[in-house]
Each structure stands twice: as structure tokens, then as C-alpha cells.
Design brief:
Elements: E1 2-7, E2 10-17, E3 26-31, H1 44-55, E4 59-63, H2 79-95, E5 100-106, H3 108-119, E6 123-129, E7 147-153, H4 161-170, E8 175-180, H5 191-206
Parallel strand pairs: 3-4, 3-5, 5-6, 6-7, 7-8
Antiparallel strand pairs: 1-2, 2-4
Length: 214
Amino acid sequence: MHLFIPSPSGHLESLLTEPKITPHEWGCVLCHPHPQFGGTMHTKAIFRSARALQSLGMVTLQFNFRGVGQSTGTFDEGRGEKDDVRAAVDFLRGRYPDARLALLGFSFGAWVGLQVGAEDDRIVQLIGLGIPFSISSFSFLNASVKLKLIIQGSRDEFGSREAIETWYETLSEPKKLVLIEGANHLFDGKIHELQKSIVEYFSEQYSMGAVNPI
């Protein structure tokens, strides 16, 4: 369902997908990579991650940050984009008041989105893809006791294996790190492994088996 969510900058172009299985017990907000480098809610890793979550029966909400696609406003270097994430979470909580909520962010979307998710009591699960550790600080996650799933390519140009493993050790439990061998920052050629990692994590953590093909 294509829709527009009210936001401090006007509205956010969004894509809401509701699996046929009811009741909707889970919902997830997905935050795309850097708007100034081509990131949108349709970026392959975001789209495919949404498909993985949908296969588990989750409602997914993809949205364009301000100034991207048909979202109003202009790029705000991560400050206003946090308000965009909050608006997306507000919408999902309002529509599904009883669902458990997760937040997934990829690259810039992880930096912005996980800051909001770590502070928002409505979010119970954090998912970070392609952490751009070499250009952004993620120390805000160190003390978080929320469930955390980090998925990183072993050849990520912005977050090397060594840097991620060192940082991961500083994170509080509960946490899980998945390194996808040979994957770069965009997970080129490794998207299926990314999807599989998400499905396997939720199947193990929450006993959620896939109900639809990815």
C-alpha cells in the first residue's frame, strides 16, 4: 500500500505491506541508506530485508526520508531524519497498537534509525545492516539492553571485519553479529544470504518460522 505519513517536514512517502496472516503480531520500520548517495526505500537491501520480514508474517513500513522521492522537506544531515523515523514509528504504533515493533536500518539509516530505536520504549528489536563504522559513531548503542542484530559484509568498505568485531564486543547483551563472507557494503551478490540471516535470526530468537517464500 503506497501512502503518505504526516511528518514535521510535511509528509513521508511510504510503502506499507501487510501479510495476509492475522493478527499482525509484529511490525518493522525500515530506514534506507544515505539520501545524497542514491538511498531510497526501494534500495535493494531494504526491499529484500522487507521481503524476509514479510515472509515471517511481519508488517513492514518502508519510507523515504525527507527530500527523497515524494517526501517533502530537505536533507538535514541526520537531525531532521530522526524526526522522520519517529513519525514512521508513530504511524506503525497507531495502526497496530498491540504489535511488537522492530526497527531496521541500513548504513545511514542504521546510524539515524538505531539512535531513535535505542531510545524509544516501543521498539523491542534493533537490526543494523552495513554499519558505516569508519565514518559514523555508534557508541550510542553500547549501553542498550535491547535485542540487537548486526549484519555486516566481511568486505564492507565502511566497516571492516576487525572494526565491527572490536565494536561488537563493547555492546551489551543481548546481541548477535552475523558476518556475511565476501559481501561488500551493498551486499552485492549476497542479498539472499542477507535475507536468510534475518529469517534465521527471528526463527531462532522468537520461534517464528517463515510462512511465505522470500
